[in-house]
User: Fold this.
Amino acid sequence: MNTHDEDRIKHLLKQAMPPTGDTGPERDLWPAMLQRLDVQPGAPPWFDWALAGGLAVFAIVFPASIPVFLYYL
Amino acid sequence: MNTHPFLRAFLAGAFVPTLILPLLLLGSILIRLKFPIGPVERGLIFPMALVPSLWALWNMLWLYSHTRTHLAIGSHGAILPLLLMPCGAVLARRLGILAIGANGIVWFQSLHVSYALVAPMFLAALVAYYLGWKYIVGFLNRVLGIA
Assistant:
């Protein structure tokens, strides 16, 4: 196979498989990834605090429920 | 981190009950030594053998389904007691650690729980599971890259 044949095959291959146009992201994604990794999760909403408080009060008022809870955990 | 997401979901789900198991075992030994109560050892079968696997499978189910259901992890976890509680009660009844009396349920042949407390306890279990799944399992899922 000479150089002419190689060039011809390259040309034919390029014709058969045109560029997809998907050349990757337009901007650098790494800073956004770092920013996302640095974000601390927000504080729990008041509703979850209220639920946790209610649960604690329930366990204090009805301590007999604690072994039953542990059985299901 | 795109490989084996279901294996990671299994591990994240099993984490919490597995961590609590030694404490549960220690607590049962101490209770057994201190108080003359019923068959505590039989009461460990459900939490030690079944609950960790059920948590793990439930987390795998969440991973499989949440792209379609968009159900938050806390809400998904809060559904689990609906399955666990009847299963646990049936097993406890079979093992002789739960007796149904006229005024309430007797656990471990000594712990009396009145019927009036059953519904609040069930609600409390839903709350505990909601919080546990939202904050602990959710955190583990994020750490393992599946949430």
Notes: The interface with chain A takes residues 16-17, 20, 24, 27, 31, 43, 46-47, 51, 81, 84-85, 88, 92, 107-108, 111-113, 117, 120-121, 124-125, 127-128, 130-131, 134-135, 139 of chain B (CB under 8 Å).
